[in-house]
Amino acid sequence: MTEQREHTNPGSQRRWSSATTCVHAGTEPEPITGAVMTPIFQTSTYVQPFPARHKGYEYSRTQNPTRQALEACLAALEGGGEGIAFASGMAAIDAVLRLLETGNHVVAGNDLYGGTYRLFKRVYERFGLAFSFVDTTDLDAVRAAIRPETALLWIETPSNPLLRVSDLAALARLAHEHGALAVADNTFATPLLQRPLDLGIDIVVHSTTKYLGGHSDVVGGSAITREPELARRLRFLQNSAGAVPGPLDCFLTLRGAKTLHVRMERHCDNAERIARWLCEHPRVARVHYPGLPDHPGHAIASRQMRRFGGMVSFELRGNAEDAMQVCTRTRLFACAESLGGVESLIEHPASMTHASIPAEVRRLAGLEDGLLRLSVGIEDADDLIEDLGQALAP
């Protein structure tokens, strides 16, 4: 995909590139002082000149100027519509699930973040939702899993942690044929590399903790949709349940988003080099990265993504203990959960981010105990390769 130029500045008809949108969307000079950066409106409530008549703000659980600036930025990055910022990525996912009713059925990918699986199985099954987990790269498998009561199709692409690539346009069409919503977690790709709303997806969710914030210093989430009624319902659920980010969190995420375009280019450059290097390493059995020509989803990724992202996973020739030992030997790659920060991270999904998924379920999905996941940062690629080399040495 070429550089998107479909972003419109709120209040104008100008269309901006993705890079310019990152810097300017949602932010206007503060009208009283002229401050370039949106201030941190650290307030819980607002004076009303007359009961039930206010200046657009009444209580900060419901609306806050800093949060609204972030929401406008996120919506613009995803290509329009309305953005709703949440206290975490899981809070955003939770709000989407609250759109459903008891008795509804969800078809979800069988390779997805462990926290999402935990929320689906251990929280929402108790309230009468049913879930089927299938390989969403297989349209026939998704079609076979759909029931009359299916109300939602949940997609991660690239998936976490195996970086499988699903055809968003085809899946959106399939969901809509059966009257279901299509929802995509776009955390790994970010709106700079992939725009699911343009491909027919109804709701896009992000953990803004990751690439959008970009500096491992804030937790947040978002849900973005072009459907006004869906946006209205999500805002109602957020205000009712109260899963809102604080103004400082919004300020930090908005600041991070301003450099998303330059960071993602370096993340992608480094990840591509590291993936190719890992393919040649004798201790590596398999590399998962959509940018590799032999990746099963490479053709689809080339069509629906601008570049292939900063996440790489690989399987060692060895067991879980061997994989965990590599995590202890890296010097630049910090052994830690999360991803998308400027610094490189390494983790062992089976014992860390995906430990909440039962072992037999992980293995059925192809997540082996010897798998390692890299969040490739923006350091010098040669230094990162040297670090992996010494960690993988016998």
Structure explained in plain terms:
The protein has 394 residues and is of the alpha/beta class. The protein folds into two domains: 15-257, 3-Layer(aba) Sandwich (Aspartate Aminotransferase, domain 2), CATH 3.40.640; 260-392, Alpha-Beta Complex (Aspartate Aminotransferase, domain 1), CATH 3.90.1150.10. The protein is built from 14 helices and 14 strands. It has a seven-stranded mixed sheet with strand order 3-9-8-7-6-4-5, sandwiched between helices. Helix 4 links the parallel strand 4 and strand 5 (130-134). Helix 2 (65-77) runs parallel beside helix 9. The longest helix has 20 residues, at 260-279. The protein is globular, with a radius of gyration of 21 Å. The two termini are 41 Å apart.
Quick structural overview:
With 394 residues, this protein is an alpha/beta fold.
List the helices and strands and how they pair.
Elements: E1 7-8, E2 15-16, H1 18-24, H2 65-77, E3 82-86, H3 89-97, E4 105-109, H4 114-123, E5 130-134, H5 139-145, E6 150-156, H6 168-177, E7 181-185, H7 190-193, E8 203-206, E9 221-225, H8 228-241, H9 247-257, H10 260-279, E10 284-288, H11 298-304, E11 311-316, H12 320-329, E12 334-335, E13 345-347, H13 359-364, E14 371-375, H14 381-392
Parallel strand pairs: 4-5, 4-6, 6-7, 7-8, 12-13
Antiparallel strand pairs: 1-2, 3-9, 8-9, 10-11, 11-14, 13-14
Helix pairs in contact: 2-9
